[in-house]
TrEMBL record:
Family that this chain belongs to: Belongs to the DprA/Smf family.
Listed InterPro entries: DprA, DprA_WH, DrpA_SLOG, WH-like_DNA-bd_sf
Domain DprA winged helix: 305-353
Pfam families: DNA_processg_A (PF02481), WHD_DprA (PF17782)
Gene3D superfamilies in alphabetical order: 3.40.50.450, Winged helix-like DNA-binding domain superfamily/Winged helix DNA-binding domain
Protein's UniProt name: Uncharacterized protein
Amino acid sequence: MNNYDIWFSMVKLSYKIKLELLKKLKNTEAIWYYSMTKSTYINEEIGEDKLKALLKSFWNVEKINSIKSIMERENIAMITYNDKLYPENLRNYEDSPAILFYKGNLEKLNKNKSVAIVGSRGYSYYGENVTRIVAAKLAEKNVNVISGMAKGIDSFAHTTSLKEGGYTCAVLGSGVDVIYPKSNTSLYHEITKNGCIISEFLPGTPPYAYNFPLRNRIISGISDLVIIVEASNKSGSLITASCALEQGKEVMAVPGSIFSENSKGTNKLIKDGAYPLTSVEDIFHILNISYVHKNERKYYFGNAMEEKIFSIVKYSPIHIDDILKGTNIDIKQLYEVLFELQLKNQITCLSGNYYVRIANSV
């Protein structure tokens, strides 16, 4: 961290011009001295004098010291496009961020392949289940899981990767010190310990709505593959998919029910040419990583009634009244059996007295 890096992160210029300055002049200190001298840079988009005047106008010692103070207090680091730690997958785009702020371990990001998992905040159990399975399998193969730390699918992707000992990176639409949503405070701190949080926005920047489409291009940019789990026709996840396609990245989508609002966006992506995610093998095939499908886990039952009730509960939610119709036991005994199956992590209870089988692979 130095004053010149902080100053340059404050400068309001197009991504293209900021990258050109860094590529030609090598570092932010040289850019500052360029603005103070008669040396020429030659840029077609903006005149030399105007460019220098604009650069100088952002030099504000008080503001620089304020940001530096936040970074020191919050243990925030920063890198420029020319640093070795800069995400390799994010290079070579006209709108690559010239500077990134981060918390955590950024080094691992370049060591393994990365897959973005994004989707709806208003998720279904189906979407949650698929996300957890995919994130777990990626962690098992040392594939980085990238997402945006939003509620729903994003959070499940990060949480599962961490739980399975994987590496995960959250790209924020705010400053790296601004936790959003607040309900993800615990997750945020876990990621900083065992993964990385990055942002192109200055520390202290609130989560403005217009920041998130900009954030999405970084999610796709640092990834080798983007998976959209659930998305309505107006979901921000579709922006991430669009960014990925513009960047030449592969896009996968999880097929869903034609009656589900949360699957309209993903089904359309598939219709338009995205790879349908039908098994984890599909993912590793695209990543060119060998993968041997493991047999489904074996289920063990304490008695015949447990086995019968388990056979009624499928991977689609079923109401307790419908389970009751398929058995010849009273409701009290049914609840006891369902509770036992939940303790064995074979089924789970959803809101509204719906039950569903827990999958361990797709």
